[in-house]
Amino acid sequence: VQLQASGGGLVQAGGSLRLSCVTSGITFGDYAMGWFRQAPGKEREFVAAISWGRDLTYYTDSAKDRFTISRDNDKNTVYLQMNSLKPEDTAVYYCNGRHRVLGDYWGQGTLVTVSS
Q1: What is the Cα–Cα distance from 73 to 96, expressed in whole angstroms?
Q2: Taking a C-beta distance cutoff of 8 angstroms, is the pair 98, 104 a contact?
Q3: Which band of pLDDT confidence, cut at 50, 70 and 90, is reported for residue 5?
């Protein structure tokens, strides 16, 4: 099983980035997919998630109205479009796949740095 995240980088405050997470080794459509992040010295926190089947979306308060999570089941990929980025969004972003029976899989992180 692999979850390969990409798309991080350095961006100025107010800018945008689009993260991608390509998966392999799982039946992608059976998994809820999510993004988490971990800032230096802090615990990993939830950012956004999208359900399997009905593609319901969920966001932490700080991500609402700025971030959009989406999935392409044909490409086994989940995306996180991040707009109006703030310095406090700086973190390593991790993608997560969650199956209701099989549990969680995690990808390696991709670093997002937002300069002020």
Answers
A1: 15
A2: yes
A3: very high
